[in-house]
Automatic annotation (TrEMBL):
Organism: freshwater metagenome
Entry-linked InterPro entries: FAD-binding_Monooxygenases, FAD/NAD-bd_sf
GO molecular function: monooxygenase activity
Membership in a protein family: Belongs to the FAD-binding monooxygenase family.
Coiled-coil residue spans: none
Cofactor(s) needed for function: FAD
Protein name: Unannotated protein
Pfam families in the cross-refs: Pyr_redox_3
Keywords: FAD, Flavoprotein, Monooxygenase, NADP, Oxidoreductase
Length: 596
């Protein structure tokens, strides 16, 4: 492929100005409000038969877990290991899997190596078929975990929690569901998932489109034909539009491009796409691993992607190559700030150079180059996305950072040009930093009937992102004041372990209710502020994304709704040190029933 780039590399100041200009044209006054919920008919579950019914359940139990993805499943598995088997799992979907239940779009796979992403491989003996597991394989593995640890007998599928209220007299949570269930439970675990609630762009006229439309998490194979592993033959002769160029679109575009007559990819911000280098699993290598290998590999990967630079990089892929320097830390001098920015620019320049090397048309190549820092959005890795734009039936519609102007009955409009399509696919992702009760779909009511939205009206109040004052025996697995990491399953595994240990400790010590003292919550908030100083500086220069709440103005709520931006291992250290104290510090407990 000829080298299309004949320009001189930009200086440090020129690159900073380029980044700033790209950021400014993408900042919108509506911030997070630029997104909207899925239409009711679009939000239905296409993977279950309609008409499911069952008798309502009235039951007392020790734990109710909201969510059947990895967070909820791992919590249940850890509870079982502690001898606690009296629990229910309430899940909207028709099976376990969470994100991997919903995301069945063609080409979907995990961007983190399967040997570190899939939990409990040593315990199940499961060998992923490829280095980066497909969504269908991960969904299958989720069901295997559920069978192995007998989770199906505890599950209430196709069921939403509609209300959860703390009963101060009985010291239990009263949980009501969309199926009429009435559950009384000592502990309520909110494991609703990091990528749980799908969203649509709030584009003018979106309701007026008369063609077929769906979100990637509700893929309609009845319309497209095929399956996650088979060609979509029904798209032959069809004009297809995809709105979005993030991690989902990067995987969808090559699949649709193979069959559609015309494919229009509507881009607001170019994604950063490195080499994936997919490979089949070497069975001999996998079977030769010694006990403890997966934990060692997980920790090694987390060190590598947070700049700790382990002595040996066990994973050695695009993630560890790009992230081995932590460019988010707070510089101690102008010279260090320059060095960090230069390292970040150089890492992203390898991504931009790949675009130059792959794309035939120089104008298209320039539009596909991401001018933002490597921590501003999630880096993608794919071998077929960029080459798809060399195909004559694939058209990049770059909106110069503004997004689609409107949608008519025929299709999207950009710069006054209408693009008629038969099918419109929204690769617009999930809510991540919106209010927790909004993503959960219900508003827990704690002590004195105060709702979570009211208690957190000016921002979250938690200890470690897990326990919340005013909401006894409610345990959270969430990004809100919790951890964050490239390998989400590592974070979820450790969070689940922490939640299960708290419940076990309460059982052992006769603790009827537990919640943090407000002083402990403020102490944790100060930790978040201290760790987040470098990240705040870094993200202030980023293009808008869910990582920075679309660059929405910082207010009281945003100043509290933080995430622990340091290493997952450092976050886990806080949890472990707190658990190691014989009597949990910073919490209020009740050991005598009211009235005794």
């Amino acid at each position: 492929m000829p080298d299309n780039d004949t320009t001189e590399p930009l200086s440090l100041d020129e690159m900073r100005e380029r980044y700033r200009a790209e950021q400014q044209k993408r900042i919108r006054p509506d911030g997070l409000n630029q997104w909207r919920d899925l239409f009711d008919d679009m939000d239905r579950d296409p993977f279950v038969e309609p008409g499911f019914t069952r008798e309502p359940l009235i039951e007392e139990t020790t734990v109710v877990i909201v969510g059947g993805g990895f967070a909820g499943m791992l919590t249940a598995i850890d509870l079982t290991k502690h001898g606690i088997t009296d629990f229910k799992i309430v899940e909207k979907a028709g099976d376990f899997g969470g994100t991997w239940y919903w995301n069945r779009y063609p080409g979907c796979m995990c961007d983190v190596e399967s040997y570190v992403y899939l939990p409990l491989l040593e315990e199940t003996g499961f060998m992923p078929t490829e280095r980066y597991a497909s969504a269908s394989e991960i969904f299958g593995y989720s069901k295997e975990l559920a069978r192995t640890f007998d989770l199906y007998s505890h599950a209430l599928f196709q069921t939403d929690v509609v209300d959860a209220t703390w009963d101060e007299e009985r010291l239990v949570w009263k949980v009501a569901t969309s199926r009429g269930d009435q559950l009384s439970t000592r502990f309520l675990v909110l494991a609703g998932g990091i990528l749980h609630k799908a969203k649509l762009p709030g584009i003018q006229g979106i309701e007026s489109f008369e063609g077929k439309a769906f979100h990637t998490s509700r893929w309609d194979y009845d319309y497209t034909g095929g399956s996650p592993t088979e060609p979509m033959e029904n798209l032959k002769g069809k004009r297809v539009g995809i709105i979005g160029t993030g991690a989902t679109a990067v995987q969808v575009v090559p699949q649709v491009a193979r069959v559609a007559e015309e494919l229009y990819v509507f881009q607001r911000t170019p994604g950063a796409v490195g080499v994936r280098n997919q490979q089949a699993t070497d069975a001999a290598w996998f079977q030769s691993q010694k006990p403890g290998w997966q934990k060692e590999r997980i920790v090694n990967f987390t060190h590598a992607v947070t700049g700790a630079q382990p002595e040996k990089d066990l994973v050695n892929d695009g993630w560890t190559e790009l992230m081995w320097i932590d460019t988010q830390k707070m510089p101690e001098s102008d010279e260090e700030a320059d060095a960090l920015d230069r390292a970040d620019f150089e890492a992203m320049e390898t991504i931009r150079q790949r675009v130059t090397d792959v794309i035939d048309d120089p104008e298209t190549a320039e539009k596909l180059k991401p001018y933002w820092g490597k921590h501003c959005k999630r880096i993608c890795f794919h071998d077929d996305y960029l080459p798809a734009f060399n195909q004559p039936n694939v058209h990049l519609v770059d909106t110069n950072g503004m997004g689609v102007d409107e949608i008519t009955k025929n299709g999207p409009v950009v710069d006054g040009i209408e693009y008629p399509v038969d099918l419109l696919i929204y690769a617009s992702g999930f809510e991540v930093t919106t209010d927790l009760h909004q993503r959960l779909g219900f508003n827990p009511k704690g002590r004195d009937g105060i709702a979570l939205s009211e208690r957190w009206a000016e921002g979250a109040h938690t200890m470690h992102g897990v326990l919340a004052s005013g909401f006894p025996n409610m345990l959270l697995i969430s990004l809100v004041q919790g951890g964050f990491g490239t390998n989400f399953s590592h974070l979820l595994s450790e969070s689940a372990k922490h939640v299960a240990r708290i419940i076990e400790k309460c059982n052992e010590d006769g603790i009827l209710s537990i919640e943090p003292e407000e002083a402990a919550e403020e102490e944790w908030l100060s930790v978040l502020h201290g760790v987040g100083m470098g990240g705040a500086r870094y993200f202030s220069h980023c293009t808008p994304s869910f990582y920075n709440s679309e660059q929405q103005r910082i207010d009281k709520r945003a100043a509290r709704n933080l995430t622990y931006t340091g290493s997952v291992l450092d976050y886990v250290g806080y949890l472990e040190r707190w658990r190691d104290v014989p009597d949990f510090s910073g919490v209020k407990t009740v050991t005598t029933p009211p009235g005794d």
